Amino acid sequence: MDEKYNRRGKVHFVCTLKVMDLEYIVPYIGKGSTFDEKEMEVIREILMSDKTMSCAEYRRIFEEAFAKFVGVEYAFALTNCTVALEFASYLAGIQTGDEVISTCFSYQATILPLLQRGVKIKFCDIEPNGLGVDLNEFRKLISPKTKAVFITHYGGMIVKDIEEIVRISHDNNAIVIEDCAHAIGSSYAGKKAGSFGDFGCFSFHSLKNISTLGQGGMITLHNKKWADVIRKIRGTEPDAVFYDANVKFGMNKAPYDDIERHAKNAYIQNCSLIKYSGTNATLSEPSCAVGSIQLEKIDSFNSRRREIAIRLTNGLSKIPEIRIQQTTDQDYHIYHLYTFFLRDEAQIDRDEFVRRLKMKGIEIILRYFPLHLLPEWRFQGGEFGLCPVAERVWFKEIVNLPIYPKLTNNQVDYMIETIKDVIYEMVLEVK
User: Fold this and answer.
1) Which residue from 8, 278, 293, 302 could staple onto 334, CB 3.0 to 4.6 Å apart?
2) Residue 378 contacts by C-beta under 8 Å, 6 or more apart in sequence?
């Protein structure tokens, strides 16, 4: 532990991490949760036993526990959240020429599965507090032509007006796909992320609030027909149309001995249509075992994040040049990201502000660049000015601070005091 002094002479005992010649007092570390002997023990047990490490008991346990936690009928463990979004896009029936509404403020993976589908994307601007799709803008974009709606619970806060957005979508026969990568355990009015729409897509990446050994995902849903399809395509079974037939070749008849031949339905059915190939995208047993243990800890992880967020908010809300993200009594925000905003009238250059925080030992990563301005989406019609609120927030206002359960109160206080100092310096310079 090192002693660090700020300009007011206060001492903070903090951990440091040297990255690219900068000694970060508050690093943005690569793990969003913590691990202990419970995870180590279950991995050891699997590795030292003769049990399979794929498609077995721990996957079932993890899926059942996750479905219960979210409050849905079905949950399927997958290799990552992007695969979950791909499955949801397929089951929503999105095809070339279809119209889709998407948030413009999310990680690029949210709509990555749509890049090659030839769809017409309508990017929806955001409301400036929770950073989810704005209801009024959404109303202007939705129509009977809309096939699906992609929303993101940014930073761990449920999209404002989520119930109304789902209702309007369903009234227009549009499928709602929730990107819940930030929102494991988030809720609004007691209902959890991943249970509002038709699909919930979750991430267990190393940075997320729980992790399954670095990568992993889950898709949640209520529909049995879709669940039956996912069971097939997350393995190596295609979603296809088969019909009964007495097929003869090779031995001229189907063998009835007990030899495993991987013949599947070759002797009893023909295929007349391939709709989707299998992917072999299931999550391994060690990952599912770790995920089950992490899920047991999720409430404590999220509680610690909320404690940190409250401490930050109490300190930063006293700074007039800052706008704090507001929540209501109905929101259970789990703060995968801690976000605040620089007020435009303060005339503080956001990029210079972030540079100064980094030079004082606070590692900042800004999330996320507006999707409609990425080159692949500009190629398909996105342009500057399409989503003015998101653009203003991104280029001028937004700041994301490091937040994870291992942060100490001293580190949190150091961030508060440093932000006060930097703003004070920059305000004086403007004057």
Assistant:
1) 302
2) 372
